[in-house]
Amino acid sequence: MTTAGILLAAGLSRRFGVADKLVAPLRGRPLVTHAAATLRTLAPEMLIAVTSNEIVAAELDGFVITQPDEATASQSASLRAGITLAGERGAQRALVMLGDMPGVTVGLAKRIAQRCTDRSPAAASDGRSPKPPACFPAACFSALLDVQGDQGARALLRSLPTDNLIFAEPGELRDIDTLHDLEEAERYCG
Prior knowledge:
This protein is an alpha/beta fold.
């Protein structure tokens, strides 16, 4: 099954401050490079990154760069851009990761991709709700192209049966939204 690894890295970092959080240093390298390295290690047939920031794009060697179709860079606009390119390039499924989630391990992402079937997506879970990363078969691409707002694919993931959820270890699903989050991640992961 041809897999596209899609890295969503086009957010506006509103809660982080004036800088783009994805280029803020974590453990000696830009935040976005942690999720990118996980995807590279998985070695899907194609790597796609959605970003409007040239500095972020410069950190993503090996990724085909695309941009969201809206200046607002909502999560759904980014998701649509990545899924559109994956579909155009013949992907049969898409493993979607967020650039601000540095704790996602290769093992977790791999288990999610393995659980995804031709008809049913799979996602991570913290035990309370499904979360990215998530893997979607091509059968879901049209529904993903219809998502709106900053919720991304949340509505699709909420309907997943428990068998399609991969439970993550503490810290794996930590996302970085604020400078405090980054400082906590440095302490937790450092």
